[in-house]
Amino acid sequence: MMSKYRDGYEFYCEMCDRYGLEPISFRYYVIQLSQEQLSAYNMQAKQLGI
Questions:
Q1: pLDDT for res 1
Q2: What burial letters (b/e) apply to 32-42, b meaning 16+ CB within 10 Å?
Q3: Could you tell me if residue 26 is left (phi over 0), alpha (psi between -120 and 50 degrees) or otherwise beta?
């Protein structure tokens, strides 16, 4: 589900903030996901009928 990506991104942003780093945009974050991560998302979306 895309919300899992959003949750991961929010955690990433918290860590960037903690260490004084500038986070990349959510769009770029999603683009950088591995094929395995994208496949898992697509499989879960199909099961949920999204």
A1: 56
A2: eeeeeeeeebe
A3: alpha
